[in-house]
Amino acid sequence: FFICALLGLLVWLMLWLALVAGQLGQAHPDNNWVKEAYALKFGVAKQYLGQKKLLVVGGSASMFGLRSPDLERAFDLPTVNLGVNAGLGTYEVPARVDKWIEPGDLVVMPLEYRLLLWDGVPSYVTLSWALEHPETLRTWSSKSLLRGLWSLPLKRVFEGYVRDGAMPPALGPYGAHRLDQWGDQIRTAATLRSDAQLQGLAAMPAERYEELYADTSMGLEEWRYWWRRWQGRGACLVVVPPPFMESPAYESPAFSAFFDAIPQRVTRRGVTYLGHPRDGFFPVEAMFDTNYHLTDESRDIYTRRLIASLRSGNLSCLSETPRGDTR
Q1: Structure confidence by residue, pLDDT tens digits, 97-146
Q2: On the CB side of 61, how many CA atoms lie within 13 Å of its CA?
Q3: How far apart are CA 254 and CA 37, in angstroms?
Q4: Under DSSP, is residue 217 helix (H, G, I), strand (E, B) or coil?
Q5: Cα–Cα distance between 267 and 276 in angstroms, integer?
Q6: What is the distance between the alpha carbons of residues 261 and 117, in angstroms, rounded to a whole number?
Q7: Chain segment 271-304, per-residue pLDDT in tens
Q8: What DSSP character marks residue 23?
């Protein structure tokens, strides 16, 4: 019986691997808006190759949270918001922006907590992107590959066979059609947020980061690889608190210890962390449609805080007195 069960498991595994492999590289609607957004942002970054610039690296918290023209005026540096979707994961987000980081650049990273402190378990978004871009799988650890194979939905695999050819342009709330010339998200005023969205935010449960990521090192070590690579080129790097919706649960001793430890976990890996994670906390009324997405009005507040933090952070790459204002 044991031998038969083992053989059956091996046959199932081989069939599953064959089914997954047969649709690798096929385009899927999941990824359409992300590809469009990166295409726009990389087109902007290309204009500034060879120039000292300010690049924002992260996920959609950056896309919704920053007003890049204000950063541009404050520091007299061309600015590009390269934040798109943290769901792509810690393997892919830094790899996507790597080619645009050059000597002298200031790289500001308001990294979402899962993106920064990842435990190696891929999300659905990470998996769907990797199925369409299988070359990225070469960098995955065995843990990520095995967990990915185990959790990959059969529906997504089948969709890789029936979805082929050119994808229609993204028409939803995310994509190049909702970005400005700096790569910032537009149409996020509080008046454009629906009552259902606000109610959904109010009902959103607290994250479980203090359970999942208090002792993880995999994501941080992945980031350390890229940080060293960029520092070796002569770029100036800084991690800052992302905008994040506050919750009474985050006042617990376990969460307080989790947030208090983050700056040191980053600085031990050779990169400056400015401020404290709570500096990025906002009430539910400040959020647009997720616990990381600010409304347009709150974006102004977060950007002013960030500019003040960068100016007082004693960064060697900002040793000269910045010009401009924050309005």
Answers
A1: 999 999 999 999 999 999 999 999 999 999 999 999 999 999 999 999 99
A2: 25
A3: 37
A4: coil
A5: 12
A6: 12
A7: 999 999 999 999 999 999 999 999 999 999 999 9
A8: T
